[in-house]
Amino acid sequence: MRNTGPFLLTTLLCAMFSTYARAQTLPLQSDLAPFSYPINSTPPGTTRQVATLSPAHDELPDAPEQQSANFILSDQQSAGSITGTVVDPSGAQVEGALVSIQFIDSRPQRAIATDSTGSFNFTDVNPGTFKIAVVSTGFANWVSSALVLQKGQLYELPTIMLQLSSATTNVDVNFTRHDIAEEQVSLEEKQRVLGVFPNFYVSYNWDAVPLSSGQKFRLALRTAYDPVSIAIPAIIAGVEQSQNTFSGYGQGAAGYFKRFGASYGDGFIGNMIGNAILPSVFHQDPRYFYKGTGTIRSRALYAMSTAFICKGDNGHWQPNYSFILGNFASAGLSNLYYPAGDRNGAGLTISNALIDTASGAASSLIQEFLIKKISRGVPKNPIP
């Protein structure tokens, strides 16, 4: 619905910063497969300290004495993190081992799987007493003694060595694929281009668990209400006001807020329809899955193809109904709030929808070749 200048500005901003990224996925294993998480590196100028643990192979220890751990306090956050590495008796890294935090104060358990380096990383962990349990096929279950996480502590566990299974030991580790998806989304919400612009719809974990409908809506709202997602339409509205774009809105404060509402509405509607509502209806993942390997040509073709095909939550390839229909729906709905003089019928709606689709392919190309290099919060060891 916009004239050439502001529309290109909007398209460029959306493409470069992925504020309203409409992204897609690649094949996902249908069975519960190894899920990986990168370990955040130690902040510059600090030294990681290692706590002492004693494993229990047959049963949980009886009221062990809490061990003291050297730790690093963060002045900025009260929540801490827990990291570690799991290896087998030969010292080889164990990928796909299921690691859970068992809180003593009856908080819900959290669980993730070790990545290809055998590492795991729990972030945003509130202080308290906890135990770590590790379960992996072919190895004896491993449970730590009681440990204490202090406020803001970056807690690095010593290397956990699993022993080959010689007997069956029951350890109560209750977690679901939904819980693992929560951990993955939590990491994605920390990704920002240049440390400022939200980049939530890109997964650097190739085998990420599909999102539930609730998680799709939560991520869409998290993007829509991000301060940067509000600031960009505010800037665009100011440029349109100065150029008297959409003159039917008039000038003054009333005209500015009408332009801001229209600009923000374009992004909000497109984001909710294309990244939450339709992906829930068609059971599709709205995220872009970073490839990062192969020739430039293969990566470019993959990136552009995600505008037209995607992976369903059931693991099968299918047409990308969510993205394509979302573009047409949002373009059509814009006729409800733009000035009558700027509503040029179905022709412009179709044209804008096709331009949005092409912009999505361009955005994916930028994600594949540039955004990772200039983003913060990106995992250090993504699965290739």
From TrEMBL:
InterPro entries: Carb-bd-like_fold (IPR013784). Coiled coil: none annotated. Residues 1-23 form the signal peptide. SUPFAM superfamilies: Starch-binding domain-like (SSF49452). Keywords: Signal. One of its GO terms (molecular function) is carbohydrate binding. Pfam families: CarboxypepD_reg (PF13620). This is Carboxypeptidase regulatory-like domain-containing protein. It comes from Tunturiibacter lichenicola.
